[in-house]
């Protein structure tokens, strides 16, 4: 989480000093942009004054390596323990429309699972974790590498795959927004499921399972 916060903040500091996004190989002030912060009320000069590219780059590159190394250890450990298979892979019956609808309804009504269901991930939770771990995170890393001049020198094919550095950058930022959305929804879910219980279980392993009657009290 600390790593994510630093990557987000440092990324924001870099972005603010170049607050427009482009598609393809080329992009500069005055060029056709796919996103302009000035359209949202903050001019280029105002954004530039808020950002700090030097600080941002120092921390972004540092925490990018922490992120990659940490991710590889997490992946290796969980593959070794078969946790992705046992905890995150949805069972066949969970993927039925009826099951998915019921889970979605519970989420929209902010109803947390009780009893044994509270000990397992819900199907939407499993799908979102798998998407974040196996789609968004790897995409962040690949689109990050595609923006590094040193890496482009070693492997120009990667940047060609994105159709140019500007496209890689735009996709990196879109992915950032998706990850931010995931974190916000995730934090809401933790609050709904009982923040103290959830956080304590992460730190000490002690998790109090709510029963239907306890929930209604
Ligand atoms: C969850 C993790 C990450 C988030 C939220 C994130 C976010 C961002 C944001 C918002 C920017 C600013 C885009 C711009 O204006 O140019 C950025 C830039 C960048 N990111 Fe990330 N990033 C993450 C992970 C990574 C990783 C893992 C790498 C490397 C493998 C990476 C490499 C880069 C590079 C090279 C830039 C351009 C920096 C520059 O212009 O000097 N990022 N990132």
Please provide a written account of the structure:
The chain has 217 residues and is mostly helical. The chain is 70% helix and 2% strand. It contains ten helices and two strands; from the N terminus they run H-E-E-H-H-H-H-H-H-H-H-H. It has helices spanning 2-16, 44-50, 53-80, 83-88, 97-108, 123-147, 149-154, 156-162, 165-204, 212-216; strands spanning 20-21, 35-36. It has a two-stranded antiparallel sheet. Helix 1 (2-16) packs antiparallel against helix 3, helix 6 crosses helix 8 and helix 6 (123-147) crosses helix 9. The two termini are 34 Å apart. The structure holds protoporphyrin IX containing FE (HEM). Protoporphyrin IX containing FE is lined by residues 4, 7-8, 11-12, 14-15, 18, 57, 60, 64, 67-68, 140-141, 144-145, 147-148, 169, 172-173, 176, 179.
* Distinct bound molecules: protoporphyrin IX containing FE
Task: Please state the average pLDDT score.
Answer: 90
Quantity of strands, as a count? 2
Distance from N terminus to C terminus (CA atoms, Å) equals 34 Å
Q: Counting H and I runs of at least 4 residues, what is the number of helices?
A: 10
Order of helix and strand elements from N to C terminus: HEEHHHHHHHHH
Structure classification:
mainly alpha
Oligomer: single chain
- Biggest beta sheet summary: 2 strands, antiparallel
**Over all CA atoms, what is the radius of gyration?**
21 Å
- State the strand order across the main sheet: 1-2
| Low-pLDDT sequence parts | 213-217
Percentage of residues in helical conformation: 55-70%
Q: How large a portion of the residues is in β-strands, by DSSP E? A: under 5%
Which of globular, elongated, flat, extended, rod-shaped describes the shape?
Answer: elongated
């Amino acid at each position: 989480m600390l790593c994510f916060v630093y990557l987000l903040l440092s990324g924001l500091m870099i972005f603010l000093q170049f607050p427009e996004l482009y598609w393809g190989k080329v992009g500069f002030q005055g060029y056709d942009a796919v996103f302009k912060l000035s359209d949202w009320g903050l001019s280029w000069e105002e954004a530039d004054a808020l950002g700090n590219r030097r600080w941002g780059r120092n921390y972004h590159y540092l925490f990018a390596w922490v992120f990659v190394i940490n991710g590889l250890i997490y992946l290796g450990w969980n593959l070794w323990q078969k946790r992705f298979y046992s905890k995150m892979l949805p069972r066949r019956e969970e993927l039925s429309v009826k099951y998915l609808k019921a889970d979605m309804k519970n989420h929209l009504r902010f109803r947390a699972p009780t009893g044994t269901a509270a000990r397992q991930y819900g199907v939407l939770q499993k799908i979102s974790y798998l998407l974040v771990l196996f789609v968004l995170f790897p995409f962040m890393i690949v689109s990050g590498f595609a923006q590094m001049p040193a890496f482009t020198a070693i492997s120009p094919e990667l940047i060609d795959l994105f159709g140019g550095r500007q496209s890689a950058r735009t996709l990196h930022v879109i992915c950032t927004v998706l990850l931010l959305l995931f974190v916000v929804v995730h934090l809401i879910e933790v609050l709904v499921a009982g923040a103290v219980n959830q956080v304590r279980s992460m730190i000490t392993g002690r998790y109090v399972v709510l029963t239907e009657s306890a929930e209604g009290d």
